[in-house]
Amino acid sequence: MNLSWHVKRLSAMGPAEIARRLTDRLHEIAWRRRYFGTSAQPVVPAPERHFIGGLSRLRAADAPANPRENLLRVADGLLAGQWQTFAITRSDVTSDVDWYLDPKTNARAPAGAYAFDIRFVGGASPFDTKYVWELSRHHQTTLLAMAFWLTGEERYARAATGLIQSWIRANPFLAGIHWANGIELGMRLIAFAWTRRLLADWPKVAVHFENNEDFARAIVRHQWLLAHRRSYGSSANNHLLYEMAGLYVSTSCMPWHAKSAWRDRAARILEHEFPKQIFAEGYTRELASDYNGFVLEALIICLMEGALSGPPLGPQVWDCARRMLDWLERNSDCRGHPPRQGDSDDATGLLLDAPDFDRWHDLSYLHKAWIGNAPQEAPSLRAWLFAPLAQPQLSFPRGRGPSPELSSDGARSWIPACAGITEKGRAAESGLVILRARAGTTSEIWCAFDAGPLGYLSIAAHGHADALALELRYGGAPVLVDPGTYAYSGPWRDWFRSTAAHNTVELGGRSQSESGGPFLWTRHARAVLLETEGLEDGTSRARVVGEHDGYARQGFAGRHRRELTLDREGATLTIRDELSAAHPVPIRMSWHLHPEIGYRIAGNGAELICGDAVLGLALPAALNWRVARGSETVGPGWYSPSFDVNRPTTTLVGEGVLSGTLTLATVLLFPKT
Fold first, then answer.
1. Is the peptide bond before 203 cis (omega within 30 degrees of 0)?
2. Buried b (16+ CB within 10 A) or exposed e, 61-94
3. Nearest one of 488, 489, 454 to 468, comparing CA atoms
4. Mean pLDDT across the stretch 6-18?
5. What are phi and psi of 158, to 5 degrees?
6. Among the listed residues 378, 404, 399, the one whose alpha carbon sits nearest the alpha carbon of residue 58
7. SS3 assignment, position 655
8. At 10, is the secondary structure helix, strand, or coil?
9. What gap in Å lies between CA 7 and CA 21, rounded to an integer?
């Protein structure tokens, strides 16, 4: 990473954060001499090591059939080394796997180097850090452990413990990239804890875990490092949550350090950080919907650990869970999927299912189960496993939580209520608003509009320059899409988070916010939600208005205000853009179609073919329109359904010159069914 990036990164920090980072650097220098590659941290003697918190209340025979079969199918393939990592299908994931190999480039991360000497931020290395780290999160290991728990077959247990022992042998303390980033340590601790929990009925379990000196020391080294070096300041986002979640979970069920108050410290930080990082309406302040699910999973994992090994986290954390689950239920489309916004890298906190399980259906079931209204069969093993753990006698064994109350329909709610959030208030902080008609039907009109902040903290690491962008679905099928993330480095990273890559308006060939690097925004566009009305399905019209100042400080003093009006009776969505500039400036409007949407150009507009339905699209005549289709070059015409996967699609691009003021109207017409 060049000097310019470091200067920009420092400018995003306050004096206290800079001082803290200098202190961390001094610690790293001292740790090299004292701990590098050694067995430094003391552990309690083997007879005093116990694993706390089993699953005795649940019976594997009651697990839902389809998720069970899917998991066992993947587990059997994994026994032969087959495993999918992002876009790469591997055949080498056995106990002999190379933990430092990037299967995408076949480059290796340095194995013996001191962890804090390795530079990996922003594509500074020849290997893809995401690919190297992903396997060491040990999702494949918890999947194998779940296969054992379901079947009792020892081959799965042997494979799971073989992977853990292989990892420990290949990663001496502070040697290599797997010790360099706290979130990776936290997620690994969660996986190790749940692997041990799921293997509880294996006669050899203690030999491989609490009676195994290498494993016990590896656990304590992870805990020690997280207790002494955590994210803070401008980096205290989901990374901090998973660092402390890993510390909390592992010290709850494996408290094996000779002298430790780490569990209480982690609990205090989590009880402070979860409410801090979540809007009152129940959405993450990182303004990235996939990370919203990721954070919610961390929250639920911690609540479940409190239920199993106790004592639980405080009631404010349960309240965060309720608000986040409520937000998903309110804002998801008729297929149960929430808005798509900001970064996504397909991260999951704890894998107990086949990797292709639907996270959103999993969380929706858990929400329904906790309010006493769950469908008969769970869509995932994780949801089925977690659902009964919310019972108050298990969740609050020492009285720190609330007593259960009856809702208006008589159903028990195990999560404390949050009063005082109105419909308008739900959208006020995040600026994310859903306009909807025919809710819950196969012809549902669903539109998400973003008039909120760029992201969280001064660097807004996972935010995209998408102010006033919209996303449209018809009957749950994506029509106008948020293009996704695709990559975390290089020119594709710059494109996918740019303004032009979203369904909004770009002025002057620039993004609304100024990028300083792959996870760094140095100047934030400030968007504001000005008006909302009729958001409740049932009124004849829904309307929302927002604006942002991202171009106000440019040399052309640009301004952008957008109004969306959904006429439920007339089945039309009108997008009205009001733009102005002090000097002539290029303007570009983009409408990004999902790859499965067909189109026919019809005069100054198009017909969009969505399955059996045809949607009309009238485009502003003041712009010159062209069709862009994905090619080898970076630019419009691409859609990323998941991390490191890029599919060509169609983008309708309107271009012109803005001089003075201009109003542009785009109208979508839906079938009147």
1. no
2. eebbeebbebbbebbeebeeeebebbeeebeebb
3. 454
4. 84
5. -65, -40
6. 378
7. strand
8. helix
9. 14
Structural domain boundaries enclosing 646: 423-669
Phi/psi for 318 (5° steps) reads: -60, -35
Residue 585, helix vs strand vs coil: strand
pLDDT on residue 458: 93
Evaluated on CA atoms 477, 449, 341, 578, the torsion sign reads positive
Which ranges in 254-314 belong to alpha helices (H)? 262-277, 289-309
Cβ atoms within 10 A of the Cβ of 356, count? 8
Q: 3-state SS string over 271-285?
A: HHHHHHHECCCCCEC
End-to-end Cα, the chain, rounded Å? 55
Please tell me the distance from the alpha carbon of residue 243 to that of residue 239, in angstroms, as a whole number: 6
Share of the chain above pLDDT 70, in %: 93
Q: Do 23 and 93 fall into the same domain?
A: no
Residue 167 lies in a domain: yes
Interacting residues of 293 by C-beta distance below 8 A, sequence separation 6+? 338, 359, 360, 363
Q: Which residues of 216-237 are buried (b: 16+ CB within 10 A; e: fewer)?
A: bbbbbbbbbbbbebbbebbbbb
CA-atom Rg of the chain in angstroms: 25
- Alpha-carbon distance 630 to 634, whole Å? 8
CATH number at residue 295: 1.50.10
Residue with the two structure tokens 């479940």: 304
Contact 444/611 with Cβ under 8 angstroms?
A: no
Separation of alpha carbons 119 and 127, rounded Å: 11
626: CATH: 2.70.98.70
What pLDDT is recorded for position 124?
62
Q: How confident is the model at residue 404 (pLDDT cuts 50, 70, 90)?
A: very low
Angle, helices 154-170/182-198, rounded to nearest 10 degrees: 150
Distance CA 631, CA 654 (A): 19
Distance of alpha carbon 639 from alpha carbon 648, whole angstroms = 6
- C-alpha triplet 513, 277, 432: angle, nearest 5°: 55
Q: Are strands 559-567 and 541-548 parallel, antiparallel or unpaired?
A: antiparallel
State the amino acid at position 80 in one-letter form.
A
| Rounded distance between C-alpha atoms, residue 18 and residue 568, angstroms | 53
Check: CB of residue 412 under 8 Å from CB of residue 373: no
Residue-wise pLDDT for 33-85, tens only, equals: 888 766 667 899 999 999 999 887 788 999 999 999 999 999 999 999 999 99
Whole-angstrom distance, CA of residue 127 vs CA of residue 605:
45
The most confident of the ranges 10-24, 106-120, 267-281, 523-537 is 267-281
Biggest CA pair distance of the chain:
80
Distance CA 510, CA 484 (A): 19
The full DSSP string for 608-668 is EEETTEEEEEE--TTSEEEEEE--SSSSSSEEEEETTEEEE-EEEEEEEEEEEEEEEEEEE
> Is 333 inside any structural domain?
yes
Domain count, the chain: 3
Contact 620, 656 (CB under 8 A): no
What average pLDDT does the chain have? Answer: 91
Structure tokens at 559: 């301004």
Please enumerate in sequence order all residues whose Cβ is within 8 A of that of 82, keeping only pairs 6 or more positions apart, or say none. Answer: 89, 90, 91, 93
CA 582 to centroid of chain Cα atoms: 40
In a domain, 46, yes or no: no
Q: Shortest CA distance to 660 belongs to which of 588, 581, 587, 578?
A: 581
Instruction: Please tell me whether residue 417 adopts helix, strand or coil conformation.
Output: coil
457 domain-assigned: yes
Beta bridge partners of 661: 580
Query: Is 222 in the same domain as 123?
Result: yes
Query: How far is it, in rounded angstroms, from Cα 202 to Cα 149?
Result: 9
Write the CB contacts of 555 (distance below 8 Å, at least 6 apart in sequence): 583
Instruction: Note the pTM of the prediction, 2 decimals.
Output: 0.93
d(CA 257, CA 249): 14
